[in-house]
UniProtKB/TrEMBL annotation:
<dbReference type="Pfam" id="PF03446">
    <property type="entry name" value="NAD_binding_2"/>
</dbReference>
<dbReference type="InterPro" id="IPR006183">
    <property type="entry name" value="Pgluconate_DH"/>
</dbReference>
<dbReference type="Pfam" id="PF00393">
    <property type="entry name" value="6PGD"/>
</dbReference>
<comment type="similarity">
    <text>Belongs to the 6-phosphogluconate dehydrogenase family.</text>
</comment>
<dbReference type="InterPro" id="IPR004849">
    <property type="entry name" value="6DGDH_YqeC"/>
</dbReference>
<keyword id="KW-0560">Oxidoreductase</keyword>
<comment type="pathway">
    <text>Carbohydrate degradation; pentose phosphate pathway.</text>
</comment>
<keyword id="KW-0311">Gluconate utilization</keyword>
<dbReference type="InterPro" id="IPR008927">
    <property type="entry name" value="6-PGluconate_DH-like_C_sf"/>
</dbReference>
<protein>
    <submittedName>
        <fullName>Decarboxylating 6-phosphogluconate dehydrogenase</fullName>
    </submittedName>
</protein>
<dbReference type="InterPro" id="IPR013328">
    <property type="entry name" value="6PGD_dom2"/>
</dbReference>
<feature type="domain" description="6-phosphogluconate dehydrogenase C-terminal">
    <location>
        <begin position="183"/>
        <end position="318"/>
    </location>
</feature>
<dbReference type="InterPro" id="IPR002204">
    <property type="entry name" value="3-OH-isobutyrate_DH-rel_CS"/>
</dbReference>
<dbReference type="InterPro" id="IPR006115">
    <property type="entry name" value="6PGDH_NADP-bd"/>
</dbReference>
<dbReference type="InterPro" id="IPR006114">
    <property type="entry name" value="6PGDH_C"/>
</dbReference>
<dbReference type="InterPro" id="IPR036291">
    <property type="entry name" value="NAD(P)-bd_dom_sf"/>
</dbReference>
Protein backbone atom coordinates (compact mmCIF):
# COMPACT_ATOMS: atom_id res chain seq x y z
CA UNK A 1 0.00 0.00 0.00
CA UNK A 2 1.54 3.27 -1.13
CA UNK A 3 -0.10 6.29 0.49
CA UNK A 4 -1.28 5.83 4.06
CA UNK A 5 -3.62 8.81 4.39
CA UNK A 6 -7.29 8.77 5.37
CA UNK A 7 -8.09 6.21 2.68
CA UNK A 8 -4.92 4.12 2.17
CA UNK A 9 -4.13 3.70 5.86
CA UNK A 10 -7.61 2.48 6.74
CA UNK A 11 -7.81 0.22 3.69
CA UNK A 12 -4.52 -1.38 4.72
CA UNK A 13 -5.93 -1.92 8.20
CA UNK A 14 -9.12 -3.49 6.86
CA UNK A 15 -7.04 -5.79 4.65
CA UNK A 16 -4.83 -6.86 7.55
CA UNK A 17 -7.91 -7.52 9.68
CA UNK A 18 -9.06 -9.78 6.83
CA UNK A 19 -5.83 -11.79 6.94
CA UNK A 20 -3.84 -10.09 4.14
CA UNK A 21 -0.19 -9.18 4.47
CA UNK A 22 0.66 -5.54 3.81
CA UNK A 23 3.91 -3.82 2.96
CA UNK A 24 3.34 -0.15 3.75
CA UNK A 25 5.01 2.96 2.36
CA UNK A 26 4.33 6.67 2.66
CA UNK A 27 6.58 9.73 2.45
CA UNK A 28 5.37 10.46 5.97
CA UNK A 29 7.48 8.19 8.18
CA UNK A 30 5.07 8.53 11.10
CA UNK A 31 2.24 7.09 9.01
CA UNK A 32 4.46 4.10 8.11
CA UNK A 33 5.42 3.58 11.76
CA UNK A 34 1.75 3.74 12.82
CA UNK A 35 0.79 1.07 10.29
CA UNK A 36 3.80 -1.09 11.23
CA UNK A 37 2.54 -0.86 14.78
CA UNK A 38 -0.75 -2.32 13.54
CA UNK A 39 1.05 -5.24 11.87
CA UNK A 40 2.22 -4.04 8.44
CA UNK A 41 5.73 -4.60 7.07
CA UNK A 42 7.25 -1.10 6.87
CA UNK A 43 9.08 0.08 3.74
CA UNK A 44 11.35 3.11 3.56
CA UNK A 45 11.08 3.66 -0.21
CA UNK A 46 9.53 2.17 -3.33
CA UNK A 47 12.83 0.32 -3.97
CA UNK A 48 12.76 -1.09 -0.46
CA UNK A 49 9.16 -2.12 -1.08
CA UNK A 50 10.10 -4.23 -4.09
CA UNK A 51 12.47 -6.31 -1.98
CA UNK A 52 9.74 -6.98 0.55
CA UNK A 53 6.96 -7.93 -1.89
CA UNK A 54 6.13 -11.39 -3.20
CA UNK A 55 5.98 -12.18 -6.91
CA UNK A 56 3.86 -11.09 -8.63
CA UNK A 57 3.88 -7.95 -6.53
CA UNK A 58 0.65 -6.03 -6.11
CA UNK A 59 1.35 -2.29 -5.84
CA UNK A 60 -1.75 -0.48 -4.58
CA UNK A 61 -1.33 3.28 -5.03
CA UNK A 62 -3.67 5.30 -2.83
CA UNK A 63 -2.58 8.89 -3.39
CA UNK A 64 -4.30 12.12 -4.41
CA UNK A 65 -5.01 12.19 -8.16
CA UNK A 66 -2.56 14.20 -10.27
CA UNK A 67 1.21 14.64 -10.27
CA UNK A 68 1.98 12.58 -7.17
CA UNK A 69 0.06 9.56 -8.47
CA UNK A 70 1.57 10.00 -11.93
CA UNK A 71 5.18 10.16 -10.73
CA UNK A 72 4.70 7.29 -8.27
CA UNK A 73 3.28 5.01 -10.97
CA UNK A 74 6.16 6.00 -13.30
CA UNK A 75 8.67 5.02 -10.59
CA UNK A 76 6.88 1.75 -9.91
CA UNK A 77 7.02 1.14 -13.65
CA UNK A 78 10.81 1.09 -13.41
CA UNK A 79 11.00 -0.89 -10.14
CA UNK A 80 8.36 -3.53 -10.89
CA UNK A 81 9.09 -6.98 -12.33
CA UNK A 82 7.20 -8.44 -15.31
CA UNK A 83 3.88 -9.85 -14.18
CA UNK A 84 3.48 -7.35 -11.32
CA UNK A 85 0.16 -5.57 -10.88
CA UNK A 86 -0.20 -1.81 -10.36
CA UNK A 87 -3.50 -0.59 -8.90
CA UNK A 88 -4.54 3.05 -8.77
CA UNK A 89 -7.25 3.30 -6.12
CA UNK A 90 -7.37 7.11 -6.01
CA UNK A 91 -9.67 9.42 -7.94
CA UNK A 92 -7.61 9.53 -11.17
CA UNK A 93 -8.97 10.74 -14.50
CA UNK A 94 -9.96 7.71 -16.55
CA UNK A 95 -8.06 8.78 -19.68
CA UNK A 96 -4.86 8.74 -17.58
CA UNK A 97 -5.65 5.11 -16.73
CA UNK A 98 -6.02 4.17 -20.39
CA UNK A 99 -2.63 5.76 -21.15
CA UNK A 100 -0.88 4.20 -18.14
CA UNK A 101 -2.30 0.74 -18.80
CA UNK A 102 -0.82 0.84 -22.33
CA UNK A 103 2.51 2.17 -21.06
CA UNK A 104 2.83 -0.50 -18.36
CA UNK A 105 1.67 -3.31 -20.67
CA UNK A 106 4.79 -2.67 -22.77
CA UNK A 107 6.76 -3.79 -19.69
CA UNK A 108 4.48 -6.77 -19.13
CA UNK A 109 2.90 -5.05 -16.10
CA UNK A 110 -0.85 -5.16 -15.43
CA UNK A 111 -2.75 -2.00 -14.55
CA UNK A 112 -6.03 -1.90 -12.65
CA UNK A 113 -8.01 1.24 -11.78
CA UNK A 114 -10.25 1.09 -8.75
CA UNK A 115 -12.74 3.87 -8.08
CA UNK A 116 -13.16 3.66 -4.32
CA UNK A 117 -16.10 5.14 -2.45
CA UNK A 118 -16.76 5.14 1.26
CA UNK A 119 -14.49 7.83 2.63
CA UNK A 120 -13.44 7.80 6.25
CA UNK A 121 -16.23 5.35 7.13
CA UNK A 122 -14.89 2.59 4.88
CA UNK A 123 -12.66 0.87 7.42
CA UNK A 124 -15.72 -0.30 9.36
CA UNK A 125 -18.40 -0.25 6.64
CA UNK A 126 -16.27 -1.48 3.76
CA UNK A 127 -15.49 0.25 0.47
CA UNK A 128 -17.64 0.28 -2.65
CA UNK A 129 -15.30 -0.35 -5.60
CA UNK A 130 -15.64 0.16 -9.33
CA UNK A 131 -12.84 -1.73 -11.07
CA UNK A 132 -11.29 -1.47 -14.55
CA UNK A 133 -8.69 -3.84 -15.99
CA UNK A 134 -8.20 -7.15 -17.76
CA UNK A 135 -10.33 -10.00 -16.48
CA UNK A 136 -7.50 -12.34 -15.52
CA UNK A 137 -5.84 -9.71 -13.31
CA UNK A 138 -9.09 -8.55 -11.73
CA UNK A 139 -9.99 -12.18 -10.96
CA UNK A 140 -6.57 -12.76 -9.39
CA UNK A 141 -7.13 -9.77 -7.09
CA UNK A 142 -10.57 -10.97 -6.02
CA UNK A 143 -9.62 -11.92 -2.42
CA UNK A 144 -8.41 -8.35 -1.88
CA UNK A 145 -11.58 -6.75 -3.26
CA UNK A 146 -13.71 -9.21 -1.33
CA UNK A 147 -12.07 -8.16 1.95
CA UNK A 148 -12.26 -4.43 1.23
CA UNK A 149 -15.88 -4.50 0.08
CA UNK A 150 -18.83 -4.07 2.49
CA UNK A 151 -20.22 -7.54 1.69
CA UNK A 152 -23.95 -8.20 1.29
CA UNK A 153 -24.59 -7.17 4.92
CA UNK A 154 -28.20 -6.47 5.77
CA UNK A 155 -29.16 -4.94 2.42
CA UNK A 156 -31.91 -7.11 1.02
CA UNK A 157 -31.61 -8.48 -2.50
CA UNK A 158 -33.11 -6.17 -5.12
CA UNK A 159 -36.51 -7.59 -6.11
CA UNK A 160 -36.27 -9.05 -9.59
CA UNK A 161 -32.50 -9.53 -9.45
CA UNK A 162 -31.83 -13.17 -10.28
CA UNK A 163 -28.69 -14.45 -8.51
CA UNK A 164 -28.51 -17.32 -11.02
CA UNK A 165 -27.43 -15.06 -13.86
CA UNK A 166 -26.22 -11.90 -12.09
CA UNK A 167 -22.64 -11.11 -11.06
CA UNK A 168 -22.46 -11.85 -7.28
CA UNK A 169 -19.73 -9.23 -6.82
CA UNK A 170 -22.14 -6.33 -7.33
CA UNK A 171 -24.18 -7.47 -4.32
CA UNK A 172 -21.03 -7.56 -2.23
CA UNK A 173 -20.13 -3.98 -3.17
CA UNK A 174 -17.70 -4.20 -6.09
CA UNK A 175 -17.88 -4.61 -9.84
CA UNK A 176 -15.55 -5.31 -12.69
CA UNK A 177 -16.82 -2.48 -14.88
CA UNK A 178 -14.70 -3.22 -17.98
CA UNK A 179 -11.21 -2.52 -19.35
CA UNK A 180 -8.65 -0.11 -17.87
CA UNK A 181 -10.19 3.30 -17.24
CA UNK A 182 -13.76 2.05 -16.86
CA UNK A 183 -13.51 1.77 -13.07
CA UNK A 184 -12.57 5.40 -12.65
CA UNK A 185 -15.09 6.43 -15.30
CA UNK A 186 -17.93 4.86 -13.31
CA UNK A 187 -16.57 6.41 -10.09
CA UNK A 188 -16.36 9.81 -11.80
CA UNK A 189 -20.04 9.64 -12.72
CA UNK A 190 -20.80 8.51 -9.16
CA UNK A 191 -19.15 11.69 -7.95
CA UNK A 192 -20.99 13.82 -10.50
CA UNK A 193 -24.25 12.40 -9.13
CA UNK A 194 -22.95 13.04 -5.61
CA UNK A 195 -22.62 16.76 -6.48
CA UNK A 196 -26.20 16.89 -7.74
CA UNK A 197 -27.67 15.10 -4.73
CA UNK A 198 -25.71 17.23 -2.30
CA UNK A 199 -26.78 20.42 -4.05
CA UNK A 200 -30.44 19.38 -3.89
CA UNK A 201 -30.28 18.90 -0.11
CA UNK A 202 -28.27 22.12 0.29
CA UNK A 203 -30.83 24.23 -1.59
CA UNK A 204 -33.76 22.62 0.20
CA UNK A 205 -32.30 23.33 3.65
CA UNK A 206 -31.43 26.86 2.56
CA UNK A 207 -35.05 27.57 1.62
CA UNK A 208 -36.27 26.04 4.89
CA UNK A 209 -33.84 28.15 6.90
CA UNK A 210 -34.82 31.43 5.28
CA UNK A 211 -38.53 30.82 5.79
CA UNK A 212 -38.36 33.29 8.69
CA UNK A 213 -37.00 36.09 6.49
CA UNK A 214 -38.49 39.54 6.97
CA UNK A 215 -39.04 39.64 3.21
CA UNK A 216 -42.15 37.55 3.84
CA UNK A 217 -45.43 38.73 5.37
CA UNK A 218 -45.32 37.99 9.09
CA UNK A 219 -47.97 35.25 9.04
CA UNK A 220 -46.00 33.36 6.35
CA UNK A 221 -42.77 33.32 8.34
CA UNK A 222 -41.89 29.99 10.01
CA UNK A 223 -38.96 29.46 12.32
CA UNK A 224 -38.27 25.87 11.30
CA UNK A 225 -36.13 23.40 13.22
CA UNK A 226 -33.73 22.09 10.56
CA UNK A 227 -32.17 19.54 12.90
CA UNK A 228 -35.54 17.87 13.45
CA UNK A 229 -36.52 18.13 9.79
CA UNK A 230 -33.31 16.33 8.77
CA UNK A 231 -34.07 13.74 11.45
CA UNK A 232 -37.67 13.12 10.43
CA UNK A 233 -36.76 12.79 6.74
CA UNK A 234 -34.37 9.99 7.66
CA UNK A 235 -37.32 7.93 8.85
CA UNK A 236 -39.44 6.53 6.08
CA UNK A 237 -39.34 9.51 3.73
CA UNK A 238 -38.68 9.27 0.01
CA UNK A 239 -35.50 11.35 0.29
CA UNK A 240 -33.77 9.37 3.06
CA UNK A 241 -30.13 8.60 2.19
CA UNK A 242 -26.62 8.45 3.64
CA UNK A 243 -25.99 12.05 2.56
CA UNK A 244 -29.08 13.04 4.53
CA UNK A 245 -27.82 11.00 7.51
CA UNK A 246 -24.58 12.98 7.38
CA UNK A 247 -26.50 16.25 7.12
CA UNK A 248 -28.53 15.24 10.17
CA UNK A 249 -25.32 14.46 12.10
CA UNK A 250 -23.88 17.88 11.22
CA UNK A 251 -27.09 19.72 12.15
CA UNK A 252 -27.40 17.78 15.42
CA UNK A 253 -23.95 19.08 16.33
CA UNK A 254 -24.73 22.68 15.37
CA UNK A 255 -27.92 23.79 13.65
CA UNK A 256 -26.12 26.88 12.31
CA UNK A 257 -23.11 24.94 10.93
CA UNK A 258 -20.88 27.72 12.25
CA UNK A 259 -17.69 25.72 11.76
CA UNK A 260 -18.10 25.98 7.98
CA UNK A 261 -17.56 29.08 5.86
CA UNK A 262 -19.46 27.72 2.87
CA UNK A 263 -16.50 27.91 0.47
CA UNK A 264 -16.83 24.46 -1.05
CA UNK A 265 -13.83 22.72 -2.63
CA UNK A 266 -13.91 20.15 -5.42
CA UNK A 267 -11.56 17.45 -6.62
CA UNK A 268 -12.20 18.00 -10.34
CA UNK A 269 -14.42 14.97 -10.78
CA UNK A 270 -17.58 17.02 -11.16
CA UNK A 271 -15.88 18.93 -13.97
CA UNK A 272 -14.72 15.71 -15.67
CA UNK A 273 -18.29 14.41 -15.49
CA UNK A 274 -19.53 17.51 -17.35
CA UNK A 275 -16.66 17.15 -19.85
CA UNK A 276 -17.83 13.58 -20.51
CA UNK A 277 -21.43 14.73 -20.91
CA UNK A 278 -20.29 17.30 -23.47
CA UNK A 279 -18.10 14.81 -25.37
CA UNK A 280 -21.01 12.36 -25.50
CA UNK A 281 -23.60 15.11 -26.16
CA UNK A 282 -25.70 14.03 -23.17
CA UNK A 283 -27.65 16.78 -21.37
CA UNK A 284 -26.60 17.02 -17.71
CA UNK A 285 -28.46 20.07 -16.45
CA UNK A 286 -28.50 19.30 -12.73
CA UNK A 287 -24.91 18.08 -12.51
CA UNK A 288 -23.63 21.11 -14.41
CA UNK A 289 -25.58 23.52 -12.23
CA UNK A 290 -24.30 21.83 -9.07
CA UNK A 291 -20.70 22.17 -10.23
CA UNK A 292 -21.22 25.87 -10.97
CA UNK A 293 -22.87 26.27 -7.57
CA UNK A 294 -19.61 25.11 -5.99
CA UNK A 295 -17.64 27.69 -7.98
CA UNK A 296 -20.14 30.35 -6.90
CA UNK A 297 -19.79 29.27 -3.25
CA UNK A 298 -16.26 30.62 -3.32
CA UNK A 299 -17.49 34.13 -4.16
CA UNK A 300 -20.40 34.42 -1.74
CA UNK A 301 -21.69 31.86 0.71
CA UNK A 302 -25.20 30.70 1.46
CA UNK A 303 -26.35 28.46 4.29
CA UNK A 304 -26.77 25.78 1.63
CA UNK A 305 -23.03 26.01 0.89
CA UNK A 306 -22.37 25.24 4.55
CA UNK A 307 -24.62 22.19 4.22
CA UNK A 308 -22.47 21.04 1.27
CA UNK A 309 -19.29 21.53 3.27
CA UNK A 310 -20.79 19.65 6.20
CA UNK A 311 -21.59 16.65 3.98
CA UNK A 312 -18.10 16.63 2.39
CA UNK A 313 -16.56 16.78 5.86
CA UNK A 314 -18.92 14.05 7.00
CA UNK A 315 -18.13 11.42 4.39
CA UNK A 316 -14.54 12.18 3.56
CA UNK A 317 -13.09 14.49 6.21
CA UNK A 318 -12.67 16.99 3.33
CA UNK A 319 -11.96 20.57 4.33
CA UNK A 320 -13.11 23.80 2.69
CA UNK A 321 -11.10 26.17 0.54
CA UNK A 322 -9.36 28.49 3.03
CA UNK A 323 -10.72 32.05 2.96
O1 LIG B 1 -17.26 8.33 -2.92
C1 LIG B 1 -16.54 8.92 -2.15
O2 LIG B 1 -16.04 8.42 -1.13
C2 LIG B 1 -16.25 10.35 -2.50
O3 LIG B 1 -16.79 10.64 -3.74
C3 LIG B 1 -14.78 10.66 -2.56
O4 LIG B 1 -14.19 9.80 -3.50
C4 LIG B 1 -14.40 12.08 -2.97
O5 LIG B 1 -13.12 12.28 -2.50
C5 LIG B 1 -15.25 13.15 -2.45
O6 LIG B 1 -16.45 13.10 -3.08
C6 LIG B 1 -14.66 14.52 -2.64
O7 LIG B 1 -14.93 14.95 -3.90
P1 LIG B 1 -15.00 16.48 -4.18
O8 LIG B 1 -13.71 17.04 -3.61
O9 LIG B 1 -15.01 16.60 -5.65
O10 LIG B 1 -16.18 17.01 -3.49
Amino acid sequence: MIGLGRMGGNMARRLMAGGHEIVAYDRNEEAVAALANDGAIPASSLDDMRDKLDTPAIWWVMLPAGDITESTIATIGTDAKPGDIVIDGGNSFYKDDIRRAKMLAEKDLHYVDVGTSGGVWGKERGYCMMIGGDKETVDLLDPIFDTLAPGTGEIVRTPGRNPENADPRAEKGYIHAGPAGSGHFVKMIHNGIEYGLMQAYAEGFDILKSKNTDKLPEEERFDLNLTDIAEVWRRGSVISSWLLDLTAIALAKDGMLEQFSGSVADSGEGQWTIDAAMEQKVPANVLTASLFARYRSRIDHTFGDKVLSAMRYGFGGHVEIPQ
